[in-house]
Amino acid sequence: MVPTYNRRPVLECTIECLLQQEFPEGEYEVVVVDDQSTDDTAEWLAGAAAQNDRLTAIRNPSKGRGQARNAGIRAAHGETICFVDDDVWVVPGFVAAHWAAHQRYGPKAVIVGRLDVSLETAKTIANEYEDERLVRVEERIQAAKDNLHPGFFRTGNVSVRAHFLQEVGGFDEGFTGYSYEDSELGYRLLANGAEFRYAPDAAGEHYTATSTADVLRKQAEAGRSAVTFLRRWPEAVERLSVPFAVPGVPTTAKRDGMIRRVAKWLLLSRPCGLAMGWLMVAAEMAGWKRGSFFLLDWLGWTKYARAFREAARDGCSAG
Predict the structure, then answer these.
(1) CA-CA distance, 312 to 318, in Å (whole number)?
(2) What predicted TM-score, i.e. pTM, was given to this entire model?
(3) 3-class DSSP assignment, residue 107
(4) pLDDT, tens digit only, all 319 positions of the chain
(5) What angle do CA 226, 227, 232 make, to 5 degrees?
(6) Which domain holds residue 303?
(7) 174, 206, 238 — which closes off a domain?
(8) Which of 189, 221, 214 is CA-nearest to residue 304?
(9) 155 with 227, same domain?
């Protein structure tokens, strides 16, 4: 199941990989949910689906990732749902590896596949920054193996039995922005007896095509989504990077030390943010990768912290 938005050229490669699997053709389907793309995605999907009866294309109201994935779950006919992002190009044995893992581990298994950095990704500062973050997460998953935390439920490459998804209610559609909607579902699956397993043979390459502006926008959305997540799962507060207290969410962390106060002031300081922004521009122009990564971390955390504080104060959901 693949949700998509305005990525037709990349999606075309994703679908091609999924339709060329080393698995009996009549035993799997590809469901693509177009979340109201404004490019030519809808037209291309309609034509592709007309030529291949294994491909189902759905045009969905633009209500966020969770709603799009739930629409795909409802449209799917298979026993097992594999979630793949529209910028992940899977290996020919991808479906077979997920299927074999479910046969091995049982009806409540959650199979987390491997994500590698695509060699086709352009070498820009923003792309390499995102790729480095992907590599760090993948290293943590490989180190944990079959002792995975539900926070590693990532919809770029994961599979679950359809009946199990239905039992827990699918994705929480209260998350309309980026991040945490997949982790939240992972927590519910675990609470209902899920066993998280790693399947390295169920592999895909992540093709990154982003910009500094997109990286920072996603961090702001993640800050809002984190508040929504913590209101659903307050016991997870100690595992997250929580810059401010959330009303109704208890924590044992100390948040009033001098160092933390100074750090918060620096994160929220407009002059400091402007200065860091100009430094980021200069670092990118100079091709200074490590410095750019540091500044992107700083600016990203600034966006995250501000959005988190606003959401915590306003009591709003992610959006």
Answers:
(1) 11
(2) 0.87
(3) coil
(4) 999 999 999 999 999 999 999 999 889 999 999 988 999 999 999 999 999 999 999 998 767 788 889 999 999 999 999 999 999 999 999 999 999 999 999 999 999 999 999 999 999 999 999 999 999 999 999 998 778 989 899 999 999 999 999 999 999 998 888 889 999 999 999 999 999 999 999 999 999 999 999 999 999 999 999 999 999 998 887 777 665 555 555 555 545 454 455 455 556 666 666 666 667 667 677 777 888 888 888 888 888 888 888 888 876 544 4
(5) 95
(6) 214-314
(7) 206
(8) 221
(9) no
Report the alpha-carbon distance of residue 141 to residue 114 in Å, rounded: 9
> 224, 308 in Cβ contact below 8 A?
yes
Amino acid at the residue 58:
I
Q: State how many domains the chain has.
A: 2
Per the document, the length of the chain is 319
CA distance 141 to 152: 7
φ/ψ region of 108 (left if φ > 0, alpha if ψ in -120 to 50, else beta) reads alpha
| Cα angle 257, 261, 266; round to 5 | 150
Edge-to-edge strand list for the sheet holding 2-4:
2-4, 30-34, 55-59
Angle formed by the axes of helices 258-268 and 270-286, to 10°?
A: 70
